[in-house]
Amino acid sequence: MRDNAVMEACTSTHAGGGKNMTARTTRRFRGRAAAALAAGVSVVALAGCASVPGTGSADPKDVAAYQSTIAASRAAAAAAAGKSACASWQAGYDIRIVASRATVAFTKDPKWTWDGITTLLNAELAAIDTESGKLPGVISTAQPAASIQTAITDYKSKLDAYGAALRVDQAARASGDATWAKSNPAFDALGTAATAVKRVCPSS
């Protein structure tokens, strides 16, 4: 009932002034007590027409503080995601690079043969497939850290390209300058992509 009276009083005040409000309210009552009560309602009604705290414009300082808090929270989330993704990437890289280096080292012997390198090549290809298979999850983890996600995504594309090129050369079993015609350029590109990941990843 109080809220209804206040609402009516506010409406009357805005529509036609305080006198109309008092007149409309007092019609419901009789005698001096009723008039006094009506006057009391008028005072309460006028007080109720004041601005309600919290409905005005926010303090610019509060807005700035809120925005700063949100930005800091997002930055912290991105940093944590990036660090986690980089650690996972490094773990996969460390395993695969051992197999790649073993293959490269074998070819340093001028007398190496395709038959002799088969086991090492197959091991490297298996390591490539394993690393590549885990990278989508790593890339997803890195999503809040855009630069890291982009670098690892590019690295995966170069890793897959290197694996495909290595299979082509293995099947061709060429010699001389054509021995690693496909995989050598792909391996160089992969190395560049790996360096790019290390550059954007945190050092610790």
TrEMBL record:
Protein name: Lipoprotein
Signal peptide, first to last residue: 1-47
Taxonomic superkingdom: Bacteria
Keywords tagged on the record: Signal
